[in-house]
C-alpha cells in the first residue's frame, strides 16, 4: 500500500483512506489494481520483451479502458527500469529532475517500487509518494514532480497519457525545493 512522507515535517501518512484523502486534496487520484491479475511469469520480471509488455497491458485491459473512458487517456505503455535497462542512468537523470507534463498522466506500479515526489501547496511543500505493486496514482497537468527508484532500483510501471506523443517533460526550476 502506498505511503506518503511530507518532506518539510517528516510526517508519514499511511492507510488507504488517509493516503487517498491526502492525495485527492492535490487532485492526485489513488487507486488500486489487483496484482493477482498479472500472469506469474510477468511478476517481478524487470527485463520484459515487447511481447511481455503487451501481455502486461492485456492483463490490465479492463482497468486501462475504464480509466480511458473516465479520464480521457488515449495512449499507454509499460516502462521497465532496472540494472538490466541499458540506458538506466540516462533515464533516471531525466526522471529525477523536477518537471511538469502539460497533461494529466497515470502511473501504475506492477512490479518493484518507486517514489514520486510531488509539489503540494505552499504550506505542505513537496511530499514523497512511495508506491508498491498495485498502487496507481495520477500526476496532474502542470504539477511539478519527479520520480526516483528505491534502494532496490527496479520497477515496472504502466503509464497512461492523453497526448499521442507519450512522455514529454518540461523542466521546472524551483528555488523553493529542498532535498
Ligand atoms: C515509473 S514511471 C517513469 C517515470 C515517469 O514516467 C515520470 O513521468 C516521472 O516523472
Ligand atoms: Fe513525470
Ligand atoms: Ni486497496
From TrEMBL:
InterPro entries named in the record: ARD (IPR004313), ARD_bac (IPR023956), RmlC-like_jellyroll (IPR014710), RmlC_Cupin_sf (IPR011051)
EC number: 1.13.11.54, 1.13.11.53
Residues of the site described as Important to generate the dianion: 107
Annotated residues for binding of Fe(2+): 99, 101, 105, 145
Catalytic activity as recorded in UniProt: 1,2-dihydroxy-5-(methylsulfanyl)pent-1-en-3-one + O2 = 3-(methylsulfanyl)propanoate + CO + formate + 2 H(+); 1,2-dihydroxy-5-(methylsulfanyl)pent-1-en-3-one + O2 = 4-methylsulfanyl-2-oxobutanoate + formate + 2 H(+)
Domain of life: Bacteria
Keywords for the protein's UniProt record, in alphabetical order: Amino-acid biosynthesis, Dioxygenase, Iron, Metal-binding, Methionine biosynthesis, Nickel, Oxidoreductase
Gene3D superfamilies: Jelly Rolls
Metabolic or biological pathway: Amino-acid biosynthesis; L-methionine biosynthesis via salvage pathway; L-methionine from S-methyl-5-thio-alpha-D-ribose 1-phosphate: step 5/6
Binding site for Ni(2+): 99, 101, 105, 145
Keyword NAD: no
Family: Belongs to the acireductone dioxygenase (ARD) family.
Assembly information from the UniProt record: Monomer.
Name the UniProt record assigns to this protein: Acireductone dioxygenase
Gene: mtnD
